[in-house]
Amino acid sequence: MKLEIRGVEFKYGSVLVLEDISLGISDGEVLSLVGPNGSGKTTLLKCINRILKPKRGAILVEGRDVSRVGLKELARSLGYVPQSAPPSFPLTVFDAVLLGRKPHVNWKLGERDKEIAFGVLRLMELDDMALRLFNELSGGEKQKVLMARALSQEPQVLLLDEPTSNLDLRHQLEVLELLIDMVKEKSLSAVMAMHDLNLASRFSTKIVMLKHGKIYAAGEPREVLNSDNIKEVYGVETTVNSNSGRPYIIPSTPIGKAHKTKVISKIMIREDLTLYV
Q1: Least buried of 66, 108, 209, 258, by fewest C-beta within 10 Å?
Q2: The whole model's pTM is what?
């Protein structure tokens, strides 16, 4: 098992955010974490990467407990792509990607490190902007550079927090197809926090659906992404089409009607009959 999570619990103060999370992922697999905002997707990724420390449970990468591994050694196994870029990152694109080689360097960068970084830039079609400043890029371009930096680490497990959030449709498909190819070619594993259920369905081998910090459903996309689960977790009526072999979700509850219902429930009537929210 490449990555194994055993009974993980996490709290922010007294607020329980993750409860009894257990899952595993093997070589060549892509696991998507799905669920509404606040269900614990990003928190779980940060626990895996030791940005946050679980209150209970264990997380093992290639059989080693991450809490007992040095950060530099851990960075050789885990590559993390955050949801958004840091506010200030005054480096060229090439230097930003080259930072991914830091866990493998003792004294100074070698030619092989530069070759790996530039190879990843070519792979992701970023080589033509290698000398541009990272801070001058668009949100989508920055996201691709952060993914290139993670790939240049040559990790065994990739952790991606909403990897397509700033990308247009074409680049969403390109980046995820590249990710799938890399996972298969290099026998990696990937865990993605995803909001788009259709992208998760298309590009995942496994899906874990979270609700209020607990695992509500887990398995292959066709086992998890059904109308009953989506209604229970998201509160939305859907039609799920599986003619293509992968579930494709179509919301059947008019969004405007659902929103109107929520708003009306918050309206109060004063004695003078004036409505206010």
Answers
A1: 108
A2: 0.88
3-class DSSP state of 138? coil
Q: What is the CATH number of domain 3-276?
A: 3.40.50.300
- Alpha helix (H) residue ranges in 55-160: 71-77, 93-98, 111-123, 139-152
Domain ranges for the chain, please list them: 3-276
Cα distance between residue 94 and residue 201, in whole Å: 33
